[in-house]
């Protein structure tokens, strides 16, 4: 299937959708226990449901928990196994996603980009930009994140569906689509309507640079440290006071700096404090622990627990409680049991004109937990860079290539996947 003649059409469609979706404020909130964690995610969910219905997709709905579900029936006479595609609606709470005002740099010339608000995206610091000279690049205006993670994925799936609706000659099996809330706070599949899914395999469109595909992710734990000090007036505190703020500082200082995100890359894992709150009497620290190797995760969690005990011994009036919980597991073992899944995906990426690069994800996706739930779900690039911050950017050609990858994937899935896989 040659899509060259459709490049302009696909590019315009995916760009237009992306610019529309990033303007919708969908920041999630890790402090809210409900799903969705923020009601505003419904704004994008309803917008997408409306657009899906307008393009004639049957069986579209938005669940009470803000999952958009849609089904594109198989082409007449095609009996391929169904396939599920996912992307997430929310953006990371690390930086504001309100009032996103994307900037479009057409025919990018390789120079530093003055984003606005005093921020500059400089290829000297981010040389990937130079791979896209002559292309259209989309950035923030410096005041918010962009939300390419994961509105690029949403736009790419929507564009692919639009194309399939308009081009019945591209035959495919049943395609199921779910847009999820709250992926960024690790709860993207908490309320996923599992009973609705008939596909045995899925793909998330939630990766980075074009060509990258991912079947391996971190194993992830979250650790909560509660520190209770011993409070007394500072004027008469000698040998009595245990200051919870100071103790939180000591706890954090004892975490190996060499095992931080800023000191590691590739296959090395880390500890990362993500939040501290508290006062004189009581403090709380939240950390995340990540590694591809479960034994390394276990070692770090054990260290954090021991660290609490050690400080308690050093400050007998204090109480330190350390609680750890698993967030998601490395999906590699499960996916590698079905080698055809990655084979077909690699073929699809090649058909889109790219060399597939298999990378371990230094993070997780909805697919990590879906894989645990029994639906192997590798991740496909969505094309963006520098996620979760004001330097986030995405080349439009990479979004078009992701859309093309989806189209090739559904076509190849029909031809190459065994009926009883
Ligand atoms: Zn994402």
UniProtKB/TrEMBL annotation:
Statement: the UniProt record of this protein carries the keyword Metal-binding: yes
InterPro entries: ArgE/DapE_CS (IPR001261), Bact_exopeptidase_dim_dom (IPR036264), Peptidase_M20 (IPR002933), Peptidase_M20_dimer (IPR011650), Peptidase_M20B (IPR010161)
Any one GO biological process: proteolysis
Tree of life domain: Bacteria
Residues the entry annotates as binding Zn(2+) 1: 88, 149, 206
Cofactor: Zn(2+)
Pfam families per UniProt: M20_dimer (PF07687), Peptidase_M20 (PF01546)
Active site: 90, 183 (proton acceptor)
Note describing how the cofactor binds: Binds 2 Zn(2+) ions per subunit.
Enzyme Commission code(s) on record: 3.4.11.4
Record key words, sorted: Hydrolase, Metal-binding, Metalloprotease, Protease, Zinc
Entry binding sites for Zn(2+) 2: 149, 184, 388
Family affiliation: Belongs to the peptidase M20B family.
NCBIfam families: peptidase-T, PRK05469.1, PRK13381.1
Protein name (Swiss-Prot/TrEMBL): Peptidase T
Organism encoding this protein: Alkalispirochaeta americana
Source lineage: Bacteria, Pseudomonadati, Spirochaetota, Spirochaetia, Spirochaetales
């Amino acid at each position: 299937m040659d899509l060259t003649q459709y490049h302009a059409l696909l590019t315009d469609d995916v760009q237009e959708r992306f610019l529309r979706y990033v303007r919708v404020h969908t920041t999630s909130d890790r402090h809210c226990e409900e799903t969705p964690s923020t009601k505003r995610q419904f704004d994008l969910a309803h917008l997408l449901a409306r657009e899906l219905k307008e393009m004639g997709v049957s069986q579209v709905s938005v669940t009470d928990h803000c999952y958009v579900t849609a089904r594109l029936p198989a082409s007449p006479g095609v009996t391929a196994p169904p396939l599920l595609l996912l992307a997430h609606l929310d953006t990371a709470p690390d930086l504001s996603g309100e009032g996103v005002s994307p900037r479009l740099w057409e025919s990018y010339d390789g120079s530093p980009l003055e984003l606005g608000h005093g921020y500059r995206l400089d290829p000297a610091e981010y040389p990937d930009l130079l791979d896209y000279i002559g292309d259209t690049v989309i950035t923030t205006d410096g005041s918010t994140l962009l939300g390419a993670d994961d509105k690029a994925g949403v736009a790419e799936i929507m564009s692919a569906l639009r194309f399939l609706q308009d081009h019945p000659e591209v035959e495919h099996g049943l395609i199921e689509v779910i847009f999820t809330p709250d992926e960024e706070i690790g709860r993207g599949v908490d309320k996923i309507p599992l009973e609705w899914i008939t596909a045995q395999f899925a793909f998330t469109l939630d990766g980075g640079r074009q060509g990258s595909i991912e079947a391996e992710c971190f194993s992830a734990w979250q650790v909560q440290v509660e520190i209770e000090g011993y409070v007394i007036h500072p004027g008469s505190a000698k040998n009595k006071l245990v200051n919870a703020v100071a103790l939180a500082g000591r706890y954090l200082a004892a975490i190996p700096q060499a095992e931080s995100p800023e000191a590691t890359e590739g296959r090395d894992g880390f500890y990362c404090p993500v939040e501290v709150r508290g006062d004189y009497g009581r403090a709380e620290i939240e950390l995340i622990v990540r590694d591809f190797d479960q034994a390394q995760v276990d070692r770090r969690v054990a260290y954090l627990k021991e660290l609490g005990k050690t400080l308690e011994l050093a400050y007998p009036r204090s109480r330190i409680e350390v609680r750890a919980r698993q967030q998601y597991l490395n999906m590699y073992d499960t996916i590698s049991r079905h080698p055809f899944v990655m084979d077909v995906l690699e073929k699809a990426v090649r058909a889109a004109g790219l060399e597939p690069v298999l990378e371990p994800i230094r993070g997780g996706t909805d697919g990590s937990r879906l894989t645990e739930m029994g639906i192997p779900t590798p991740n496909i690039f969505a094309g963006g860079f520098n996620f979760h911050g004001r330097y986030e950017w995405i080349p439009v050609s990479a979004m078009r290539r992701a859309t093309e990858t989806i189209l090739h994937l559904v076509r190849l899935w029909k031809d190459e996947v065994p009926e009883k896989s």
